[in-house]
Amino acid sequence: xxxxxxxxxxxxxxxxxxxxxxxxxxxxxxxxxxxxxxxxxxxxxxxxxxxxxxxxxxxxxxxxxxxxxxxxxxxxxxxxxxxxxxxxxxxxxxxxxxxxxxxxxxxxxxx
Amino acid sequence: xxxxxxxxxxxxxxxxxxxxxxxxxxxxxxxxxxxxxxxxxxxxxxxxxxxxxxxxxxxxxxxxxxxxxxxxxxxxxxxxxxxxxxxxxxxxxxxxxxxxxxxxxxxxxxxxxxx
Lengths: 111, 115
Fold this sequence. Notes:
The structure holds two protein chains of two kinds. In chain A, a hairpin with a 2-residue loop joins β6 and β7 (61-66). Chain A starts with a strand and ends with a strand. Chain A has no helices and eleven strands. Chain A is mainly beta. In chain A, strands 2, 4, 5, 9, 10 and 11 form a six-stranded mixed β-sheet that branches. Chain B is mostly beta strands. Chains A and B meet through β4, β5 and β9 of A and β5, β9 and β10 of B.
């Protein structure tokens, strides 16, 4: 079993829809949770990060962490064609600097 | 800051040839990571360095792969001899744990094709 599981999609939604992206994990020691966005033929870029449980909002993006269920989510409101990319979740333990990545979910927002 | 710089952007080589990928991390970052990305396996950590010292190379697939970091501003990943199954996008990333930056900054990657 991989430490981080993510549905690869692809996911296709109309412009303006709410998008929900999810990851599950098996290591209860993970405390830092991140979402990366990767455009085609580019490197991943950090989109959001959260520590431990709870929600964090940044504009149209909301990250949620449920440590009791070992489940994290990224919500995108009012999705735009420019949101079309692959979204990767990542996480790490306290005291460690190596990240464990999901395989990524490819999202397409149709105008 | 120019970000993490990788070269070359694209590399096409014949099976059996030596391939060297290069990375310049962000100045001041004390961690450097090499990843390989494929459709089937996603991002795989190959090796990472802290203050130029290799910390964990358990992800290096075979002895054909080697990585060095001779100074804080330069790292190489070498494959010798290369094989078609090494075809992938190789990313270098750097981070600065001490300043509270929890994420990595990735380079644009090197797309390697071994024919």
